[in-house]
Amino acid sequence: MKRPTRQKTRDDETEHETTAQEGARTCPECDSSSLIRSSDESEVSCEDCGLILEEEAIDRGPEWRAFNHSERNSKSRVGAPTTQTMHDKGLTTTIDWKNKDAYGRSLSSDKRNQMNRLRKWQERIRTKDAGERNLQFALSETDRMASALGVPRSVREVASVLYRRALSEDLIRGRSIEGVATSTLYAACRMEGIPRSLDEVSAVSRVDRMEIGRTYRYISQELSLEMEPVDPKKYVPRFCSELDLSEEVQAKANEIIDTTAEQGMLSGKSPTGYAAAAIYASALLCNEKKTQREVADVAQVTEVTIRNRYQEQIDAMGIYS
């Protein structure tokens, strides 16, 4: 006798979506949450019982296939995506610098002169007023500093959005463009969980550390940026990598920070100096000794700071040197 198979009816689907709309989606057959999507994204099925929850989904990708990056670029018929890191969001027209036509042939002298005039006027009309010129210069500065700091593109996007907000609310008046651009980049690094110290940011900026800190406090207050204190543990992986220390040292440093922070020792301390002292202490405990000068150079703090924080941390841990 042929065993009937269960089919997912509209009532089952409606009931499932009603019960799962507040929580995670689950399979209506076995209540499993292990749902997988096929490689071509046309079906969603349960990994445990095999029930197909969705099929014949709309394919929103291109109609062509590509197997490498160059093939994908050659077949693509769209331009670059819009971005906040350009003053016109990347929607402007660009005239190529090559004096060649569509067939690769060189242009005549008259055409070259005409193209040069077009490029000149194109550059002039890209910014229609002082606000756009301000934004163009500030975003180019943000991009330069972000490249020097080695932060990902997401940080640049956030910094650009913050600067646009500051410009729209007229917070730039009376302050330098470089100062506001640097402070928004510093705020974006903290918001994205990739902190950079004020000393690191001021090293790639054209303004001094005091102005960056003052402008950052003003911008964060006016834009209502709810900034949490920087966790020293976020500096540990980068410092350990630059010092060529093992994962054991990194884990021990995080343990020292957690233990001492629970005792309230982190309050009022510089997170970079605190992380540097924990790394110095953990390197000694793991027999991978680094000098205080080496750690201080990487963390951009003084040796006195490391000595003071180091002594406090080992006393709190009950370790006697």
TrEMBL record:
One of its GO terms (biological process) is transcription preinitiation complex assembly. Residues 1-40, 68-89 are annotated as: Disordered. Belongs to the TFIIB family. GO terms for cellular component: transcription preinitiation complex. GO terms for molecular function: DNA-binding transcription factor activity; TBP-class protein binding; zinc ion binding. CDD domains: CYCLIN_TFIIB_archaea_like_rpt1, CYCLIN_TFIIB_archaea_like_rpt2. Residues 8-19 have a biased composition (Basic and acidic residues). This is Transcription initiation factor IIB. It comes from Natronorubrum sulfidifaciens JCM 14089. Stabilizes TBP binding to an archaeal box-A promoter. Also responsible for recruiting RNA polymerase II to the pre-initiation complex (DNA-TBP-TFIIB). Keywords: Metal-binding, Repeat, Transcription, Transcription regulation, Zinc, Zinc-finger. The keyword Transcription applies. Residues 23-54 form the TFIIB-type domain. Coiled coil: none annotated. Zn(2+) binds at residues 27, 30, 46, 49. InterPro entries: Cyclin-like_dom, Cyclin-like_sf, TFIIB, TFIIB_arc, TFIIB_CS, TFIIB_cyclin, Znf_TFIIB. Pfam families: TFIIB, Zn_Ribbon_TF. Sequence repeats lie at residues 140-223, 234-315. PANTHER family: TRANSCRIPTION INITIATION FACTOR IIB, TRANSCRIPTION INITIATION FACTOR IIB-RELATED.
